[in-house]
């Protein structure tokens, strides 16, 4: 029984149900499933005929009693399924929470290369300093590429927050307002005389 329609190489419609531990599960088709299983040193293609398509199943299931007709189960080296005729190893499985789970072919994750940029390398190398990144780039470090224009416009919010040693505005305890607009805070700067470089901070209550 299989819950994935995409695994079928041929499929015929069929309307029935199977009895499970919970509610009866609807069967919507029957056909042949092609799977690729992983052995120690090779990948094997297997066709499972008379497979029911049951979309509501949480896992795909294989009947051991059906396997026993042409195959036998060996537990000498884990859990293995071998041909009764040739003793060829066809399936290997591992025990997970009471179920024997077939070792399917592992599909490696595909990593797509991001566009090389100053931001990418800065984050990839643990927020390294821009000066050191430029030294690595100019020293022909493998793959590190970015333009001088990126250096001029570069900023990193994470680095700024990480280097802050105090809050920008010191918090002071204030009585809680009971109505909107009872307590208003704002900062002003100016007007300032031309010689002065001081800023004034005012607070109205």
Automatic annotation (TrEMBL):
Residues covered by the GAG-pre-integrase domain: 98-164
Positions of the Retrovirus-related Pol polyprotein from transposon TNT 1-94-like beta-barrel domain: 1-70
Pfam families to which the protein is assigned, alphabetical: gag_pre-integrs, Pol_BBD
Transmembrane segments: none
One of the GO BP terms on file: DNA integration
Taxonomy, superkingdom: Eukaryota
The keyword Transcription is assigned to this record: no
GO molecular function: ATP binding; DNA-directed DNA polymerase activity; endonuclease activity; metal ion binding; peptidase activity; RNA-directed DNA polymerase activity
Record's keyword terms, sorted: ATP-binding, DNA integration, DNA recombination, DNA-directed DNA polymerase, Endonuclease, Hydrolase, Magnesium, Metal-binding, Nuclease, Nucleotide-binding, Nucleotidyltransferase, Protease, RNA-directed DNA polymerase, Transferase
Reported function: The aspartyl protease (PR) mediates the proteolytic cleavages of the Gag and Gag-Pol polyproteins after assembly of the VLP.
Identification of the protein by name: Gag_pre-integrs domain-containing protein
